[in-house]
Amino acid sequence: MLTPMNQMVAEAIAAGQAVPAFTCYDFTTALAVVAEAENQGRAVILNVAPKTAGNTAGLRLISALRTLGEQAAVPVAVQLDHASDAQLIARAVQAGATAVLADGSAGTLEENIAFVQQVRSLIGPQVVLEAELGALPGNEDKAFEQSASQLTDPAQVARFVQDSGAQLLAVAIGNVHGRYKGEPKIHWDVLEAIHAESTVPLVLHGASGIAPADLSRSISFGVGKVNLNTELRTATLAALAGQVEARRADGQNVLGLMGDWEQAVTEVSSATFNSLRAK
Predict the structure, then answer these.
(1) What Pfam family is a match, any one (predicted)?
(2) 81, 142, 224, 261 — which has fewest CB within 10 A?
(3) pTM passes above 0.85
């Protein structure tokens, strides 16, 4: 069932859990993610990257994910992730996205607030609005580490949340997109200070590579949504690489290969759900 993202996140936090948001480049991944969510009886968020949404096929994927969410037996939200193009956001919402991350984090504090306000006026009150404060470096194709200067400034949090109208706040506390250089260093003191200043749930991006115990610990500091992408990509590509020749020999068994893909997604999503419980 389609459910407002802020509602499902608030309910998860109250239950000592966080909601995973999985980036879906295709419908096969989304099917496996939702099936495991139903198996676990947990809410889930289907993320679409801006590069995916920036073409007709991507907008049709958003529409398909919305239909999947409507038919699911658990709460589902469909989110356009990390979008800094207001017109792309408008097209994604028209296609069926129920939530967006209006990402103005590359600008100044004032520019970031103004961009989030602009997006709110564009999408109306029904679409859930996430925003990001602090610089979250990286992408899913390279290894990165974060410097202290890029972390979210707790002193800016209260004003940003109030003035921007963001309903969820993505934070930079040592997490990065993509692969980490060495072990991730989560700045727990910064997260604790952010939590004390924020009136909305917090979001942890770049969760692939962060230890399950740390993901679980973050829930006690107000994190109610956790984004994963790289871990899914790594698992699915590894599964396909190991099975393509076997499936070709097995009568060009494309359905079997899709099953291998779904199994890899299921294993990652199952482990993720299990990690997103406060200890």
Answers:
(1) F_bP_aldolase
(2) 142
(3) yes
Q: Report the CATH number that the domain containing residue 87 is assigned in CATH.
A: 3.20.20.70
- Mean pLDDT over each residue of the chain, to the nearest integer: 90
Q: Of these residues, 81, 85, 214, 250, which one is catalytic?
A: 81
Tell me which DSSP letter residue 45 carries. E
Q: pLDDT tens digits, residue range 110-125?
A: 999 999 999 999 999 9
Q: Residue 2 is inside which H or E element, if any?
A: none
How far is Cα 216 from Cα 204, in angstroms, rounded to an integer? 11
Spatial contact of 80 and 89, defined as CB atoms under 8 Å apart = yes
Distance CA 171, CA 200 (A): 12
Distance CA 113, CA 118 (A): 9
CB of 142 closer than 8 Å to CB of 182: no
Please name which of 104, 93, 88, 227 lies closest in space to residue 160, comparing C-alpha atoms: 104
CA–CA separation, 13 and 85 (whole Å): 30
In total, how many domains does the chain have? Answer: 1
CB atoms within 10 A of CB 136: 24
Residue 38: count other Cβ atoms within 10 Å of its Cβ: 14
Verify whether residue 103 is a known catalytic residue. no
Specify which residues 23 forms β-bridges with: 47
Whether 182 contacts 145, CB under 8 Å: yes
**CA atoms lying within 13 Å on the CB side of residue 128:** 25
Is 129 or 261 the better-scoring residue by pLDDT?
129
Residue 78: helix, strand or coil by DSSP?
A: strand
SS3 210: coil
Instruction: Give the end-to-end CA distance of the chain in Å, rounded to a whole number.
Output: 28
